[in-house]
Design brief:
alpha/beta; 12 strands; 7-stranded mixed beta sheet
C-alpha cells in the first residue's frame, strides 16, 4: 500500500481500502468554510482531541472548526472515534462541516505538524492500517508521548479497558443507539437555545452527571486505565472513549482524558514547559462573544 508525505502537493491514490481512499480524497477539495486568516493562533507543544464522531448529527463540527482555526501545535494526537463508522454503516450522514474538519487536519499535517491518529472502537476499521502513514498522518494503535518536562505518557483510545465494548458488542451497539437518540434531542435543544441567544449546553453530559451508575462507571474506568498505565512503567496516560474530560492523579499516575466534541467540546493541551491543561471550547467561545458585545457597546 503506498504511503504519502506531508510535502506532497496531492495525495497518492490508495487502492487497498476504498473507505480510506475516500477519506484522504477530501484533501483534494476546498473547505466550505475557509480557514480564519485574521487571527493570531495560540500555540501549544501538543494537542489531544478525540471522540469527534464525524458522520453523526451530534458532532459539534462547527465548534471544532473554530477550535482548529484558533490553535496550533507542534504535535497533535487524534485519540480515536474521529469518525463514527457504526453510524455511517446504518445511515450515511456527512455535511460540509465534517468535510471541513478532515480538510483542516490534513492541511495541518501538510504544514509540518506531527499528527498521530490512534483509531478507537467506532473507527476501528482504520486499526488495520496501524504502522502506516497517509497524508502526513501516522496511524498507530497506541503511542508514548514524552512531555517537555520529561514525563512519559501512554496515549490510547481507552476502549481496551471497557468490558462492555470488549465482551458484549451487541450491548455496546444498543447503548450506542440510545445515546444517539439522546444526542439528537441535544441538537434540537441547542438550536432552540441559539434562537434565544443562549450558549451551548450538553443535555447528555448533564444526564450522565446525575445518574449514579454512570458516575460509578466513569470512576472505575479511570482507575482501571491509570493502574494499567502504572503497570507499564509510564508516568501517566491520555485517553478518550468515555466522553468525560478529566485531569487527576490516581495512585501516583497522572490520568488525562481529553473529553469529546459531542458533549463537552474539550481538548487537552501541553504547554511548552510541560504543563497540561483542559480547554473547554464552548466556554471559550462564550467568553469571546461577551468580549465582542462589550467592545461593540464601547
Amino acid at each position: 500500500m503506498p504511503t504519502t508525505t506531508a510535502a506532497a502537493d496531492t495525495l497518492s491514490p490508495i487502492t487497498a481500502d476504498s473507505d480510506l481512499a475516500d477519506l484522504f480524497d477530501f484533501a483534494h477539495s476546498r473547505p466550505a468554510v475557509p480557514e480564519r486568516a485574521d487571527i493570531v493562533r495560540r500555540r501549544y507543544r501538543t494537542i489531544w482531541i478525540s471522540d469527534v464522531h464525524l458522520g453523526t448529527r451530534g458532532c459539534n463540527a462547527d465548534m471544532l472548526i473554530d477550535f482548529l482555526d484558533h490553535v496550533d501545535s507542534d504535535t497533535m494526537y487524534l485519540v480515536g472515534d474521529m469518525i463514527d463508522g457504526w453510524r455511517l454503516k446504518k445511515k450515511f450522514y456527512w455535511p460540509a462541516a465534517h468535510n471541513d474538519v478532515v480538510w483542516r487536519l490534513l492541511k495541518r499535517a501538510k504544514r509540518g505538524t506531527r499528527v498521530v491518529y490512534i483509531p478507537g472502537n467506532h473507527d476501528e476499521v482504520f486499526r488495520q492500517f496501524s504502522g502506516l502513514d497517509f497524508g502526513g498522518i501516522s496511524i498507530r494503535r497506541k503511542a508514548i508521548h514524552e512531555t517537555a518536562d520529561g514525563r512519559r505518557l501512554l496515549v490510547l483510545h481507552g476502549d481496551e479497558f471497557d468490558a462492555i465494548t470488549l465482551a458484549h458488542r451487541w450491548l455496546a451497539h444498543v447503548g450506542d443507539a440510545a445515546y444517539t437518540a439522546l444526542m439528537a434531542l441535544n441538537v434540537w435543544m441547542n438550536r432552540a437555545r441559539r434562537v434565544f441567544g443562549m450558549p451551548y449546553w450538553s443535555l447528555s453530559k448533564h444526564a450522565k452527571a446525575k445518574v449514579k451508575n454512570a458516575v460509578a462507571f466513569i470512576s472505575h474506568f479511570e482507575e482501571v486505565v491509570a493502574h494499567a498505565a502504572g503497570a507499564r512503567g509510564v508516568d501517566g496516560v491520555v485517553c478518550g472513549h468515555i466522553h468525560t474530560a478529566e485531569v487527576r492523579e490516581i495512585a501516583g499516575v497522572a490520568y488525562y482524558n481529553d473529553g469529546d466534541w459531542v458533549e463537552g467540546c474539550t481538548a487537552l493541551v501541553e504547554h511548552f514547559d510541560g504543563r497540561m491543561e483542559l480547554l473547554h471550547w464552548a466556554d471559550e467561545m462564550a467568553a469571546r462573544a461577551r468580549e465582542t458585545v462589550v467592545a461593540m457597546a464601547a
